[in-house]
Amino acid sequence: MMHATIKPRLVALALLFGVALDGASFGDLRAQPTRMQVATRGPARAVWTKERARAWADSTGWLVGSNFIPSTAINQLEMWQAVTFDPRTIDRELGWAESLGFNTMRVFLHNLLWQQDSIGFLSRMDQFLTIADRHHIRPMFVLFDAVWDPMPHLGTQRAPIPHVHNSGWVQSPGAAILADTASFEQLRGYVQGVVGRFAKDRRVVAWDVFNEPDNTNRPAYLAYEPLDKEAHSFILIRKAFVWAREMNPSQPLTAAP
Length: 257
Known about the structure:
By secondary structure, the protein is α/β, with parallel strands linked by helices. The protein has one domain. The chain is built from seven helices and six strands, in the order βαβααβαβααβαβ. Strands 1-2-3-4-5-6 form a six-stranded mixed β-sheet, covered by helices on one side. α7 links the parallel β5 and β6.
């Protein structure tokens, strides 16, 4: 549920994987969740074959869900920062999702959360997964997002603008990093720290590496976007897939064009 000044609502949709799925090993992904295990970095593993992706889809079943953020947060930073993390609202609203028959949610993360407090961030992710599992919901986590405000900042987020869609949503990473391909290496720790921590956690259904990487957010934020954004995003998404594969996650990797 995206934060807005209107009454929160859930929009049901089937999460369709429109690009090749890419993962490590898989088993019966419907089994009970395991405790968190930190994966070890190694050589980048191979992309899943079509047959393996199909086997994963068959074992997982039909996924029905939506993008999710609690109604008390305006963006992914406000959702996850310690001061504004709201497990009570998350529990209530995932309960609504469960009552509608949802079994997954796409949930956005942010590289600045790792920079701010990596240990606390991972702990809150684990708490979120515990709540989601109680409601039989297995989320897909989104690592990067090229949509809306390209100038994210930690701390207090701005108030919502009435009747404006996603008025406080922010990109990950912001334009300052995306404009400089030489700075991409600083994102490796975030990708591998998060994916590695939950690489074998069956409560996570999949990883969405990059949401809408070529979105220039015309006209609202076009003037603030880096030059050659699409080309830079393509460089980052390729690196991010390699970084994530090195953690050998049991879940597939995908990207939303």
